[in-house]
Amino acid sequence: MSNGSDPAVSKPAPDPRGWMAALRSLGRLLRNVAFALLPRSLAARTALVLLTGLGVVQAAGLAIHALDRINLDRAEQERETGMRVVAIYRSIVETDPGQRDNEVARMRLPNGFKVSLTPGPQTADLDPASLQMQHAMRSNLQMMPFPMHLHPTQVMAGANHGEHRFGVSMHLPDESRWVSIVFRVPPPNLFSSPTFPIAFTLMIVATGILTNWAVRRLTAPVRTLAAAAEALGRDVNASPLPEDGPLEVRTAAIAFNTMATRIRRFVTDRTLLLTAIGHDLRTPITRLKLRSEFIEDDELRRKFTADLDELEAMVSATLAFGRDSANREPLVPLDLAALLSTILDEAVDGRPDITNQVGFAVEPPVVIIKARSLALKRALANLIGNAIVYGGGAVVTLKPAQEAHGDYVTVLIEDDGPGLAGSDLERVFEPFVRVEASRNRETGGTGLGLAIARNIIRGHGGDITLVNRVPNGLRATVTLLA
Predict the structure, then answer these.
(1) Which residues contact 330 (CB under 8 A, 6 or more apart)?
(2) Which 3 state secondary structure label does DSSP give 433?
(3) How would residue 322 be classed by pLDDT, with cut points 50, 70 and 90?
(4) DSSP of 297-352, one letter per residue?
(5) Which residue from 284, 309, 289, 293 is spatially nearest to 441, judged by alpha carbons?
(6) Residue 73 Ramachandran class (φ > 0 left, ψ -120 to 50 alpha, else beta)
(7) Distance of CA 192 to the CA centre of its chain
(8) Separation of alpha carbons 138 and 159, rounded Å
(9) Is the whole-model pTM more than 0.70?
(10) What pLDDT shows up at residue 71?
(11) Sign of CA dihedral 314, 319, 322, 327
(12) Residue 448 three-state SS
């Protein structure tokens, strides 16, 4: 039964899972920002960590030094100020009582000091001074050389530390008035010493230089290991790493050299296996060719011989791919433009009808690179040959490193053929892959030409990519180390 009032509308309780998800998202964002701000190289990150740690330690040391310096400066200020207060009192107490007002008026006081003769102490608006300050005032009175009967009968001191204001009132022994001295003491300044900023700057610069030098020395083995891995990728017979230095570096060098030895043994075993298989297959293929001559049916004999020729071509291509002859040839300086010109001339020697479809897009510049001449010629000839066979021509563009990727020379080989499906642009580099639309038995392709070409180019530290042109055609992009 209703009691005449609206029922309270309950608000849904906040879902804690939403808050947790928001916090996780914020954490991921902060982590990504931190990673983005971090330097990319190991040396820079190590230097940053070391400099940060040294900065924290140095800041703590400077803070301790500053606190000690402030305490020393404050004690020195208190001693000097106390001596001045006692000296002012002595000047007044040693003057005749009737001349003391004139003495106060004639006094040359230090900056921040005010002196007056008052009927009572002038420390009511100040907090009671510390025991240390009171003890310092008594000690200064004892140290000041003037008669004991002139010492004040009573001393009262106060302080306002927030305003750095202090007051001392001393009762004169021969009259009822007080000598009231109010003064301000500036806070100690850590940077008052001119040598402190210079020393601090020199310490920061020296720390940065030493840290940078140490980090570069420590990360040098990592750069050496990366260079050795790059060299091994280009030449399986590259020189081994020197197995010296600290224990960790020596262990890494030994492991790397062991890995390189195993890779060389694997490549050698594969080459020997393929060579043996090729040798064993050539003999029965030759026998079958001889026996095929006794087949009386001309059409059957022609087909039989064509199949054997294809089988022999596949065996030869497989052996060429397995031998990896590109890594056995020494690197020599060569003129890339001259090499490309030779390949183009050889391509049109037997086919004068395509002379106008084969050549350079523009006059090539002189580009000298270090490469294995026979292997590189074979790889580029495969690409140019494919453009001629499947695209009806080949247009070559040579770009030096300054116009390309900075450290790489670029060779573009373009044709006006049908191109390739998007899914086949990378798949055609796999061994024995033939796209039926462009490679079939009539063309004589074995599916190893592009695989061999990429293997050779990557052995030179570069790569090959294929893209379709618009509206039609194919472009092969070859990059080589300058």
Answers:
(1) 372
(2) coil
(3) low
(4) -HHHHHHHHHHHHHHHHHHHHHHHHHHTGGGTSPPEEEEHHHHHHHHHHHHHHS-G
(5) 309
(6) alpha
(7) 40
(8) 16
(9) no
(10) 78
(11) negative
(12) coil
User: Which residue type sits at 26?
Assistant: L
Distance of CA 360 to the CA centre of its chain: 41
Instruction: Work out whether strand 178-184 and strand 165-171 pair parallel, antiparallel, or are unpaired.
Output: antiparallel
Write phi, then psi, for 444 (nearest 5 degrees): 85, 5
For 133-146, b/e burial (b = at least 16 CB within 10 A) is beebbeebbeebee
Neighbouring residues of 321: CB distance < 8 A, sequence distance ≥ 6: 431, 448, 451, 452, 455
**Token pair listed for 140:** 């200064």
Query: Which H/E stretch holds residue 417?
Result: none
Query: Which residue carries 């061994």 as its tokens?
Result: 431
Tokens 């420590």 belong to residue? 218
Is the distance from CB of 477 to CB of 383 less than 8 angstroms? no
> Can the peptide bond before residue 197 be classed as cis, meaning omega within 30 degrees of 0?
no
Which of 424, 357, 366, 446 has the alpha carbon at shortest distance from 395? 357
Residue 12's pLDDT band (boundaries 50, 70, 90)?
low
| 3-class secondary structure, 169 | strand
Which of 122-131, 141-150, 198-207, 290-299 comes out lowest in average pLDDT?
122-131
Chain centre to alpha carbon of residue 124: 65
Decide if 360 contacts 338 (C-beta within 8 A).
Answer: no
Q: Which amino acid is at 53?
A: G
Nearby residues of 32 by Cβ (< 8 Å), 6 or more positions away = none
Show Cβ contacts of residue 97 under 8 Å, excluding neighbours closer than 6 positions: 172, 174, 175
- The per-residue pLDDT for 410 is 92
What letter represents residue 285's amino acid?
Answer: I
| Of 369 and 61, more confident | 369
Tell me the average pLDDT of the chain. Answer: 80
Residue 258 near residue 232, CB atoms below 8 Å:
no
